[in-house]
Amino acid sequence: MAMDAARADTVTARAGGTRSDIPGRPGRRGGRASNSSRGRVGARRRTDGLWPWLFTGPLLVGVGVFYIWPILQTLWFSFTKWGAFGGASFTGISNYAAMFADPEFYRSLLNTAIYTLIVLLGVPIAVVLAWLLETPGLRFTQFYRVLFFLPYIAMPAAIALVWRIIFNGDFGVLNWAMSLVGIDGPYWIATPGFALLAVSIVGLWSSLGFSMIILGAGLKAIPRELYDAARVDGASRWRQFRSVTVPMLSPSIFFVLVVTTIGSFQLFDLLYALLGSSNPVLPQSMSVVFYFYSSGFVQNDKGLAAAVAMVIFVLIGLITLAQFRMQRRWVHQ
Amino acid sequence: MRKFILAAGVALAAAALVAGCSSTGAGAGSPSGTAPSGSSSSSGASIPSQGSSADGGSSTTDTGPAGSSESESPSSNTSSQAPPAADPSLKATLTYAVWDQNQVAAIKANLKGFNKAYPNVTVNVDVTPWGTYWTKLQTEASSGTLPDLFWMNGPNFQLYASNGKIEPITSQVSSGAIDPANYPQALDAMYSLDGVQYGVPKDFDTVAVWVNKALFAKAGVALPKPDWTWEDFQRTGKELSQKLKADGAYGAAAGMDGQTTYYDTIFQAGGQVISPDGKTSGYDSPEAKAGIQFWTDLMSSGASPTMAQLTETGADQWFLSGKLAMYQGGDWFRAALIGSKIEKDVTVVPLPKGKVQATVIHGVANVVAAGSKNKQAAQALQAYLASQPAQQQQGDMGAVIPAFNGTQQGFVKSMPSADLQVFLDELAYAKPLPISKNTAAWNALEAKLLPDAFSGAKPVADVLGQLAGEMNQALAKE
């Protein structure tokens, strides 16, 4: 939660103005552009001495102990085989070999990708909804905002419990509603294919609130004058949305895309709680993190689980890197 | 700058995923084996059963007032096994780890009796909810910080015994403090490995058929007789489903869970799930095929809801909502029934007979950590909790069937309208829950493969061939 808050801060700060105009310190971009001599940079470093490290020390120690060290450990574990009570022995790449030979691993990757794509569909929806909420003169804005944000702060297990009842094939309200228009609904969480779709729908629904808060903050930062100018030029409200709102909002949209992708790749609790641990469609519907869980904590193969975790780690890194590359093409700087 | 912050966020998020999962495990639920009392239900959120109801990791000491004083145990029948000789000088502080908050009151009452004999031993009862109990225990075992005395179940027992994490009860048996003959033989066998017994049974569970008499009356079908057979069960189920169709109710429900359904029928067919030495799978035998086919037939005849229906709404929920006439389940289901709308309509009949009569029995045992620093005191407590007065008190106060022979009447009286005596009578032909050193590995295979056999999506023989093959591979790795 604290992490999210930090992210939100970043975004609001960014939306509030350009970062490089902090007084008294040359921004990174400025430093690069000024083409300063290496000597000067070196001198600066010497004069700063220990102080920057002292200030960042507490954080760095935390990051080192709780993030960097576990990552390195996980990397090491992924090359070992574990006894039930510890005692790892080095087995080379056998965990990776076993993982890449398992069709269920690929299935879980594919499922994760499908889930992520469906949940990402929520981003454009969130843009439109956030924009609608910014409609001048709209009443009860705060109420709507709370309404959309509630699913984000609710426990995934609680959400899943409620949706499990909604999706129930025999007694659920969804199939009842569908029967009113003559559609015979499926057993949502017990039919291969539909189960993943059901999870994705809930995932999309519960991610809307967070995206809308970020995008709403971004919207507020768009100068009124731009809209005024557009109106003077005779732009319709739709045209304003396309030509002013979306380009000016692109940094926030980008941020939401990155965060949503990372979040979607970590799909576990929602799937676990919605489908249940003994659901027969799990092999066809599991996510890659569920695959990790099942190898590490159901089959007690901690080495294999570490290997899966490393793959997830690298994949998320690669996808994020790709997103940053593409960002240059379309994000408004 | 912006890029750095974002990238750091990304790295942190990814790292948190790895670190969070690798250190603590995902705390939601435990797929590792069968809960002795409760968590065998196939649906995530159904019955408020004992096994999963403990809330919070509270820690209580015996010095507080005991929850109830209703039954200071009758010490009439202690001749068969007296509480161990007291050594009042023994001084120690023990930790006793359990997972069921509902039983803490009875445990405290037990500890009061224990402290009469050992006034200088303080016992902290450490309650960890079922969902995280085994993860925590495994971590403690890895780091050598196991509680002095703790609850053990069948599926996990061999893992701890074979790795030397728990202490045999050999010395207490030879000193006469514990006599295994006082407990169901199947449970002594379950907590023995290579001829050495490690755990003392605390309670037990058997499986029978819960029957909704009102639905039988509505359908005009005669109640099953105690000596009924597989054919009777299938026919009754089908007939009920046909006659209750208008109500959307069913006669019987097929299995998603070994302990309460297909393990029982495999035993009834004369087969076995795993060889007695725990080395080979029993699924590729004709008897096992008959035991699985039983449930496939039940589903294809329309007697049972379909696999998809049972996945979304567990059999226990069907029964509790008055939409299922016969539910094959454990005695722990009683806890969900008491206070429900159908409580007065319910009774119990024994499992139908196949080639032989059989039911699965499972129970929790108390075990002492091999590395306990207060082993003498821990073993004294283990022996006391195994004694007749302690278990009588457990049975009279708690929600369990105590394991000590002859202390179970409190359980039978707890729901007079149903014939709970059936669960006790079944002891005569009870078979221990199938386990091995890494039970969870092949439990996962069963859960993955068998549904296709039940639903008829794949031929039973094919599924069982694959299951036996993969299970043998898993067993070879143990």
Most strands sheet of chain A? 2 strands, antiparallel
Largest interface: A-B, 73 and 57 residues
Give a short account of the largest sheet of chain B.
6 strands, mixed
Task: Give me the secondary-structure category of chain A.
Answer: mainly alpha
Which fold name corresponds to the CATH topology of chain A? MetI-like fold
Widest sheet: strand ordering of chain B: 1-3-2-4-13-7
Second rung of CATH, namely the architecture of chain A: Orthogonal Bundle
Residue windows where pLDDT falls under 50 for at least 5 positions of chain B: 1-83
Shape of chain A: flat
Q: Overall mean pLDDT score of chain A? A: 82
Helix-strand layout with pairing:
The complex is a heterodimer of chains A (333) and B (478).
Chain A: H1 2-16, H2 28-33, H3 38-48, H4 51-77, E1 80-83, E2 86-90, H5 94-100, H6 103-120, H7 122-133, H8 141-153, H9 156-167, H10 173-180, H11 194-220, H12 224-232, H13 237-265, H14 269-275, H15 282-285, H16 288-298, H17 302-330
Helix pairs in contact in A: 1-11, 4-17, 5-17, 6-11, 6-13, 6-16, 7-11, 8-11, 9-14, 11-13, 11-14, 13-17, 16-17
Chain B: H1 2-24, H2 50-53, E1 59-61, E2 92-98, H3 104-117, E3 121-127, H4 130-142, E4 149-152, H5 154-162, H6 170-175, H7 185-190, E5 192-193, E6 196-197, E7 200-201, E8 203-204, E9 207-212, H8 213-219, H9 230-243, H10 258-268, H11 286-300, H12 307-312, H13 315-320, E10 326-330, H14 334-337, E11 346-349, E12 359-361, E13 365-368, H15 375-385, H16 388-397, E14 401-402, H17 409-413, H18 421-425, E15 430-432, H19 439-455, H20 460-476
Parallel strand pairs in B: 2-3, 2-4, 12-15
Antiparallel strand pairs in B: 1-3, 4-13, 5-6, 7-13, 8-14, 9-10, 9-11
